[in-house]
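Hi everyone, sorry if this is the wrong subforum. Our group has a chain we'd like a structural model of before ordering constructs, and none of us has done structure prediction before. Sequence below.
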Amino acid sequence: MSEDLLKNWEKKAAERTKSYKSFLQKANKNKVLELLPTLHEEAFERIDCLACANCCKNYSPRFKTPDIRRISKLLGMKESVFIETYLTLDEEGDYVVKSSPCPFLGTDNACSIYEDRPSDCRRFPYTDEDVFIKRPALTLKNTSFCPAAYFVMEKLTEKIKT
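Answer:
Right subforum, don't worry. Here is the predicted structure as tokens:
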């Protein structure tokens, strides 16, 4: 059944955006938070991020000061050079990568700085966090390009009737 759920997921996610938005507004937050850890595990048992890497191709994490320090040290660069080489400030004043796909994404969809990646990357797609319900606009965006976020949303709407 879950394999069928993921068939044509991008098209289905686009078709269900309005119902997802309504669900996120009306759902019992405690029920959602209770189900997220299990659904997150289930999603990542079925989905191989390396087969997709849509997040790295379409999305830039925020690079916070600790991320910049850690990654520039890893790369043997001064922080200012790292920022100048790879980052730009977005409209919200956060550092994000200058280019898409992410410059640290390899041709095999693996991350060259995986062990030291930004905290936003570690946490993405927030399917085991309260961010999933507290930031509905972000969740809706994520369901449009991340099969794991789509999977969790589908399972939630199946299990919780609003």
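For your construct planning: The mean pLDDT is 94. The longest helix spans residues 29-46.
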